[in-house]
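Key idea: predict the complex, not the pieces.
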Amino acid sequence: MESHDFLMIGARLFRGDRDALDPEPVPLRVRDGRILALGPPALESPGPTEVIDLTGRFVIPGLIDAHVHLELDPTLSTPAEQLAIPDDEREGAMRVRARAMLAQGITTARDCGGGAFREHALRRAIDAGEWTGPRLLCCGQPITTPDGHCAFWGGIASTEREIDAVVARQVEAGSDWIKLMATGGVFTPGSRPSDTQFDAVALAAVVAAANRAGRPVAAHCHGTEGIAAALRAGVRTIEHASFAGPGGFGTAWDDALARELAAREVWVSPTVNAGWLRRIRDTAGEPTDFFRRMSSCLGRQRERGVRFVASTDAGIPGVFHDALAGGLEGLAAYASMRPVEVLRAATVDAAEALGVARETGRIAVGLSADLVVLRGDPTADLARLRDPERVMFRGRWFAGEALRSGPSADEG
Ligand SMILES: [Zn+2]
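Result:
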């Protein structure tokens, strides 16, 4: 019988809600899936326990990726190829991806869209203990226009009536969030990221229908106009926020809008993936045009006070589900964030943004025992996140071999 009571000693903790590691090692007691005690009370709690000596190690809260697509295969480049995969093969691949995510310390992820609620079924299997994977928050079919971004997933609506019906379908399927495509995207042939989808009335109708069902809205927004419209409609998270104009990402900066994003306290989920790391400098060692545009876009949002959560958009071409660590290094490089700020974006802040702060995102008494054990200090070097020594999710050590769903160096 597997033990469900652990006392970890010797490790230094990054708790999530403080701006640094604890200066000294802190004992941590886990029982029945939860953090039972920290510090001296951890040593004094009665009952048999398994003592784990983590001297020299660092323990952080489980990581959160606020934007993934479990059903997408990152080795494929078009929606047509994705849709051609047989169902059983796809479902098997989704399970492998979920397991690989957990092996890399990702204990919570928000799935930002699929076509057939397969991620909901996977979530049920994980929650029932029938499969190993992270805590999943699911959006289901993104709401989009006919021929709009990701219309192939079926969440098509034009009128208010259709919007209500699509939202109701997502809620019925057990979606935690409603995903809204407020602008076009890269992945859909014929769709342009800078173009706005839906007018203000329709956006307000989506938010109203979602809120009536008690669901927050995550809005995919590349174009600047779409960011503004979604923000004013009352969405909770802005995905991408790339300030795209006809010239591409980061070419339509709007300073007043960035200040408004900060003032309204929405969360921006900038979907920086590991592939961005290789786009910082060109072969001559000069900063690339992409880096100049996107570092300016993200850095200025941060300067204006915009709050970021960590996210990768895993599943899109070249972006592997278990490669959050590289994405976090990318976020630090592009947004000029310190490692501790990036760690917070991937733990405590993401938990707050996703509405699961009472469950996870920090090392605190009463929360789910979602923990990552590292050999090196991630507040000094985020690259330490790439190779977790052990992962605990809901009080259980991740037992599988460290499967990887693809190459660790991703193209994005
Ligand atoms: Zn996405």
